[in-house]
């Protein structure tokens, strides 16, 4: 098939590359000139394991191409994916300006039967609204459309269908999640569109659920809100564990053995970040507010997460003394919102670094992928190019992502580099007893404090 993907972010680029790898001809539309230039050189503007190779390979084989001209892609395609960003507005709602912009351009360009697939995360009802807007935009151009492309469904004539097909991929595992997803959700009321998408997704071995578009849109928000709730829930349990000297890792393990609960997303720590959970939970809460519905659990999920990040500061103050963060050198290990990505959007590191800077601390950060991006956003933080450089002379090591290279650190050696032996482990990566043996004062999240015997 000829396919057009609009937007070459995480979702668009990985979707485009995977479909190209399946043997389709994919044209990816990207309007940001720097990104486009990088893509045209066969490279990728984001760090995603395996994606560079796949883009290079599919570009070389002629299955994947890039353009900044939406019309060029839409004119030749049977399926058009909308994969543009829907960031948060100041009030928490989703900013749909990019979605409307491409919708209007699609309406101006459509010339044959096309299935428009909404991959961007959009509030409930937007897929239907996109359909209405394209129908309005097409008015007056009907005579330009070949008669054989006009589909009659339930007595209504149309040359396009708009389908909601939410994306469930995780950054850092995007290719794997696209090829082996838990499920494919198709929100469509059109048999013709459903058939086409079944054909397109045939190489993927996963259950395909067909619903109405509104339910499909809600599945995406409800899934992300539920996973975020799981994280905030275990973080609340962790905070309570600290009061009763229980160990949250053991609690999570015990809970997870119940397959109604499951072991995943029960990793306590500094909370969730990224481009999805914070944005989508806020947008769903905003939708509820606009409808006059008090979504109490979701409100708490967000509040708990915001509070959780700042518990790093409380733990540092406890170990270093509340007055003494000024002038202290604090090393932050892990600046991305999770390992294996250079994405720092809403990363816990941002809130922690800003708070430390406000308190007069000297903050030095290290991350295997995200350091350059972080330095652009929080210029007050010194960036180290090696772990040792970050830790040399530091008064505290604060671990914010569970990168493998941090877990493998020899703490006795690290102790020798640092000025003060303090670790705040925001992901419970280190063994508290090892930390103690190496001479550290250690605080994890939801773990009993191991003290040196008097
Ligand atoms: C998330 C979802 O997992 C995907 O299914 C979804 O498609 C995606 O959002 C999206 O909406 O596009 P992602 O943001 O890439 O994917 O990252 P996750 O692996 O889910 O992690 C999100 C955050 O939660 C990270 O900051 C991570 O450190 C944190 N987390 C995760 C915890 O604090 N504890 C856990 O147990 C799990």
List keywords for this structure.
alpha/beta, six-stranded parallel β-sheet, 16 strands, binds uridine-5'-diphosphate-glucuronic acid
Structural commentary:
This protein has 454 residues and is α/β, with parallel strands linked by helices. The chain contains 18 helices and 16 strands. The chain has helices at residues 10-21, 33-40, 51-60, 70-76, 97-109, 126-138, 174-179, 191-200, 213-244, 248-256, 277-290, 296-320, 348-358, 371-377, 387-391, 404-407, 411-417, 432-437, and strands at residues 2-6, 25-29, 64-67, 79-82, 114-118, 151-153, 156-158, 160-164, 184-187, 208-211, 329-333, 362-366, 382-383, 396-399, 422-425, 441-443. It is elongated. Uridine-5'-diphosphate-glucuronic acid binds at residues 167-171, 224, 227, 231, 265-267, 269, 271-274, 276-277, 280, 337-338.
Concise account of the structure shown:
The chain has 454 residues and is α/β, with parallel strands linked by helices. The chain has 18 helices and 16 strands.
């Amino acid at each position: 098939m000829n396919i057009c993907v609009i937007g070459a972010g995480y979702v668009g680029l990985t979707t485009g590359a995977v479909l190209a790898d399946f043997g389709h001809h994919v044209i990816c539309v990207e309007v940001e000139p720097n990104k486009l230039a990088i893509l045209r050189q066969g490279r990728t503007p984001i760090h995603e394991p395996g994606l560079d190779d796949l883009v290079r390979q599919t570009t070389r084989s002629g299955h994947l191409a890039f353009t900044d001209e939406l019309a060029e892609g839409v004119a030749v395609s049977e399926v058009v994916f909308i994969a543009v960003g829907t960031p948060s507005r100041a009030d928490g709602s989703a900013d749909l300006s990019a979605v409307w912009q491409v919708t209007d351009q699609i309406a101006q360009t459509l010339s044959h039967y096309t299935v428009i697939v909404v991959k961007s995360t959009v509030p409930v009802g937007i897929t239907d609204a996109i359909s209405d807007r394209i129908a309005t935009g097409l008015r007056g151009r009907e005579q330009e459309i070949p008669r054989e492309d006009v589909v009659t469904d339930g007595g209504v004539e149309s040359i396009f269908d708009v389908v909601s097909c939410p994306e469930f991929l995780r950054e850092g595992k995007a290719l794997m999640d696209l090829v082996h997803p838990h499920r494919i959700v198709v929100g469509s009321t059109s048999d013709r569109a459903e058939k086409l998408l079944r054909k397109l997704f045939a190489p993927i071995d996963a259950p395909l659920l067909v619903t109405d578009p509104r339910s499909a849109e809600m599945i995406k928000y409800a899934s992300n809100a539920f996973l975020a709730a799981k994280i905030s829930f275990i973080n609340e349990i962790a905070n309570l564990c600290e009061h009763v000297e229980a160990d949250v890792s053991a609690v999570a393990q015990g809970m997870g053995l119940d397959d109604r609960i499951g072991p995943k997303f029960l990793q306590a720590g500094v909370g969730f970040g990224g481009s999805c959970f914070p944005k989508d939970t806020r947008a769903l809460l905003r939708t509820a507010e606009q409808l006059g519905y008090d979504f109490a659990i979701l409100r708490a999920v967000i509040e708990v997460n915001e509070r959780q990040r700042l518990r790093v500061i409380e733990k540092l103050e406890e170990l270093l003394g509340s007055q003494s963060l000024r002038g202290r050198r604090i090393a932050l290990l892990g600046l991305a919102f999770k390992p294996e990505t250079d994405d720092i959007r809403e990363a816990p590191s941002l809130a922690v670094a800003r708070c430390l800077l406000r308190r007069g601390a000297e903050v030095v950060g290290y991350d295997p992928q995200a350091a350059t991006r972080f330095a652009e956003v929080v210029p007050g933080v010194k960036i180290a190019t090696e772990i040792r450089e970050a830790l040399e002379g530091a008064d505290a090591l604060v671990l914010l992502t569970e990168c493998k290279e941090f877990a493998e650190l020899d703490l006795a050696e690290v102790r020798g580099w640092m000025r003060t032996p303090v670790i705040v482990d925001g992901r419970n990566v280190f063994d508290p007893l090892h930390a103690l043996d190496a001479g550290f004062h250690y605080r994890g999240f939801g773990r009993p404090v191991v003290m040196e015997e008097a």
